[in-house]
Write a structure and sequence with these properties.
The complex is a heterodimer. The N and C termini of chain A lie far apart (37 Å). Chain A is an all-beta fold. Chain A is globular and about 40 Å long. In chain A, 0% of the residues lie in helices and 48% in strands. Chain A is built from no helices and 11 strands. Chain B is globular and about 45 Å long. Chain B is 0% helix and 51% strand. The chains are: A mainly beta, B mainly beta. Chains A and B meet through strand 4, strand 5 and strand 10 of A and strand 6 and strand 11 of B.
């Protein structure tokens, strides 16, 4: 069974450009999460989808970040326009249910904004 | 404030030596407790988890962790480390009040001395 996959593994863009990250959860997992780790800091929650609905987006830093999960399958996280402080590793995770919340993580996308 | 603390940023141990990574949490009630590991180029992999019951939990790769309520701690241990254990280790919690967010510690990087 395939795990959580994320594309691209690494993205280098210039400040002001747009970048879209993609996450494919484990098949059958209704819950999808985005997290971010900026340099030297802890991994922080961004948002949580249940199927195609945003359940909790309290961790989204500002309105330059837009997450979507059309059809309740894969999800995208768009940053527009990117700023220097957006650099970091973006992780996606999925879980089958919410009970005890065991989340399975992808390898992450490393975003470098120059 | 609610938090997860990993006091050791970087630890180096010799191959074959024992290992203990420290984790303390600050929450009103005992949350769900986890340890994740991230090897270079890999995603976050769940090592072990504690929900309730026996306070000594066994995980994958020969790791174990002990929950101590009186100390609000969940330290990770391994009796004999292998070179392949070199990675970054994250302690994490899911508070009862949260159905989604994992709260991570800042991580401990483990290096193995040959």
């Amino acid at each position: 069974e395939a795990g959580v996959t994320q594309f691209p593994s690494h993205s280098v863009i210039e400040k002001g450009q747009t970048v879209t990250l993609r996450c494919d959860p484990i098949s059958g997992h209704d819950n999808l999460y985005w997290y971010r780790r900026v340099m030297g800091k802890e991994i922080k929650f961004l948002l949580h989808f249940v199927k195609e609905s945003k359940q909790d987006e309290s961790g989204m830093p500002n309105n330059r970040f837009l997450a979507e999960r059309t059809g309740g399958t894969y999800s995208t996280l768009k940053v527009q326009p990117a700023e220097l402080e957006d650099s970091g590793v973006y992780f996606c995770a999925s879980s089958q249910g919410l009970t005890k919340n065991i989340q399975y993580f992808g390898a992450g996308t490393r975003l470098s904004v120059l | 404030a609610q938090s997860v603390t990993q006091p050791d940023i970087h630890i180096t141990v010799s191959e074959g030596a024992s290992l203990e990574l420290r984790c303390n949490y600050s929450y009103g009630a005992t949350p769900y407790l986890f340890w994740y590991v991230q090897s270079p180029g890999q995603g976050l992999q769940l090592l072990l988890k504690y929900f309730s019951g026996d306070t000594l939990v066994q995980g994958i790769k020969g790791f174990e962790a002990e929950f101590k309520r009186s100390q609000s701690s969940f330290n990770l241990r391994k009796p004999s480390v292998h070179w392949s254990d070199a990675a970054e280790y994250f302690c994490a919690v899911v508070p009862y009040s949260s159905a989604s967010k994992i709260i991570f510690g800042s991580g401990t990087r483990l290096s193995i001395r040959p």
